[in-house]
Amino acid sequence: MIDFKEKVLSGSPLDGIQIHDCHNHLGRWKAFYVPGDGTADQMIANMDRAGINTVFATAHGSIGPDFIYGNDMVRDACEQYPDRFWGYVTVNPNYEDGLMPEVLRCLEHPGFRGIKIHADCHGCAIEDARYNTVYEYADDHKMIVLSHVWGAGQVAQIDRLSTRFPNIRWIMGHSGADIPGLTYAMDLVNKRPNVYGDTALSTALQGNIEWLVREADPKKILFGTDMPFYSPMFTVGRIAMAEIPDEIKLDIFGRNLERLMETR
Amino acid sequence: MLRFYDSEASFGRRNVVLPGSFWKKEDLLAQMDRCGIERALVRHAVAAELDPMVGNQMLMEEIADTPNLTPLWTVQPHHTGEFWEPKELLSKMEANDVRAVTMFGYAGDQNFITSEWNCGALYDALEDVRIPLFIGLVQITGGYEGLQKILKAHPKLPIVLSGVTYRDARNLYALLDRYSNLHITSAGWKAMDGIEDVCAKFGAERILFGSSLPYGAGGAAIATVTYANISDEEKQLIASENLERLLGGVKL
Lengths: 264, 252
Hints:
- The complex is a heterodimer.
- By secondary structure, chain A is an alpha/beta fold.
- In chain A, about 45% of the residues lie in helices and about 15% in strands.
- Chain A has 11 helices and 8 strands.
- Chain A has helices at about 5-10, 40-50, 60-65, 65-80, 100-105, 130-140, 150-165, 180-190, 210-215, 230-240, 245-260, and strands at about 20-25, 55, 85-90, 110-115, 145-150, 170-175, 195-200, 220.
- In chain A, strands 1-2-3-4-5-6-7-8 form an 8-stranded parallel sheet, with helices on both faces.
- In chain A, α7 packs parallel to α8.
- The model of chain A has no long low-confidence stretch (mean pLDDT about 95).
- Chain B contains 10 helices and 9 strands.
- By secondary structure, chain B is of the alpha/beta class.
- In chain B, the strands form 2 sheets. Chain B has a 6-stranded parallel sheet.
- In chain B, α5 (about 115-130) links the parallel β5 (about 100) and β6 (about 135).
- Chain B starts with a strand and ends with a helix.
- The interface of A and B includes residues 46, 211, 233, 235 and 239 of A.
């Protein structure tokens, strides 16, 4: 068994286990400076230092204004690193060609394995009716949909959508983020088999992972870092050093996402 | 292995304790042990959330038998008479071997303006003997604008800024470039390759390891330093030596 504490304190990669990161980005961002520009090469270097095998990514460009620019950036990363990058097709309901046409365009490339929704950035609700054609397609094809989920109000939307579209495997990015959101999200993870939460939380409160594992089914919590929005090392350390059984760490770091992807 | 001396930790009862967190000194020591943190500069939560005089006294009593915890006093401007005048403050600090201070001016905390007309005498006193001021960005009136004025007026006052996040570089870097007395704690500075970037542009001497326990996760804070793509010497500066240097530079 891996000695997590020794690895983290020595700054050694968490070798010998599978680490799959379900929540990542790529590229520059309007709101702040991303050292190194958040390139795929830079992400690979960080992944190697920590021992992360694979990242599931959406580009800043596509959660921002230009879904084609962003999705093409993800496609290029998947082509450059086919064993290290998986892509989300990010859709934007403000554009007719930003919904199903973009999904179909991107899914021609094998690197894309899921769909990303960022309703806050695109100025709408997760339940916005314009997303429906995408949700119907994702439901028909039992796809993974990662949605940015911040606060109890957005968890409630996933609660309703996961009933309407029961074949979509929903990942709640940030797991609701604040305490009321996290509390509701953990309840939803427990009651709805097709809903998962991730660990992409920049606040990284003390004891937070231990609390999530205590409150929710630990087999439905997925490792997510938000790289390169911020450093993945932060979340690697937060989970590796958490006071939870090593078997649960292995589930969160990689086995849960592997199982989720196999259930398609 | 790196030796860690935490520059941003606290204990004591506070208004709100979030799920999974703690407040007791013993729990802080246990978390430090788990995370490989040997020592910590600590403040008492009551000094921030009730009153500095009360909380600082609690701090000294509670860490008296704990040599790996060193005191960080919470201070206020003296004008109301509820806190010591600067000269008396220095005398009390010398008597208690206290070598660092923090303060909480934010309106939702102790509610005072941190500008020169209110805190200038306090800054002058601290600057004279090089006592480092540990302060959160949100506690400074006017944020980066206010910080710039303090740095400019007090070039020999070591300031250690906490609460810096991965979103701050576009303001922070200009101040790091211009004012050598500005430092940051690592707890919030979690930009990808952010530690590497600050080390390359401004030097590893400008970052102090901070866990932000019991608010932030200690393991997360440790990993940002141990996994940084910098030399072992730079890591050790961040992990402990920069804090030791600042505390050792106090001329009480």
